[in-house]
TrEMBL record:
Residues 94-263 form the Sulfotransferase domain. Residues 222-248 are annotated as: Disordered. GO terms for molecular function: sulfotransferase activity. The keyword Transferase applies. The keyword Transferase applies. Pfam families: Sulfotransfer_1. This is Sulfotransferase domain-containing protein. It comes from the Bacteria. Keywords: Transferase. Belongs to the sulfotransferase 1 family.
Amino acid sequence: MDIESLQRQAGQALDEQMRRASAESTRRIALRFGSSLPMWIGCGFPKSGTVWLCDLMATYLGVPYPKNYRLPIAMSSVIHAHWPYDPRMPTTAYIARDGRDITVSTYFYYLRALSLDKSPARKHQLRDLFQHLYGDSFDPSDTQRNMPVFVEHILSRPRATRGLTWSQHILDWADRPQVHTTTYEALLRDTTTELSRLMGEMTGEEADPVRVRCAVDRHSFATATGRGGGQEDRRSFQRKGQAGDWRNHYTRETAEVFDSLAGDALVAMGYEQDRSWVDEVPVA
């Protein structure tokens, strides 16, 4: 490897360390000073639509939404988070999403990350992960065959949530003071109505329809990607913008794995009436 490549990798590694340190410092600032600044938290389990939620919030509230920051944030702003709940948290919007869609979205997110040059260390970790899960015969396009093992991994060994699984994270945030919950599915179904409700609850004032419309128009899936919801681009961070995509990739085996690890939470959050949904998933 040449010197230029080594220098680039060293710079990227330092960049990642600064991001992590800044994120932790920002969390501590939010817990202590977030209500007075004020800071607004947009939180969810990874791949729940948290970035979209924070974009909508920041545009409506008229405050910055710092992304990929290398220094701690200590100002009125919207902060993207995957943190566990803490009673010291300032006013927070929590976005829930069907855990089955999260596993599928995470799978394709990991595949996309393998082709990016953003973080060599992360790419190396993902290569090791897929090697560990599937060995040398790994075919990334065979999602139905790959999904059972991947779902077990994601639901058992989460990252970025301080060890909380999807079930634990989503239930940890449920029915908490200062926390206003929305869902990815509700925002997809009627972004204007759902954002109006959410902003009204968070601010304690009737939502401003002009600001709502501005936020919705600026951050719609079509505006961000040039595609309609459901049109897939696996190279894009916003891959598909659709609820229920798990049905295209789950087999009965995958459904049974998910149900064994997170079936109770799926029912508790209203995504299924009971655990008999597994029996309706086709056998491969």
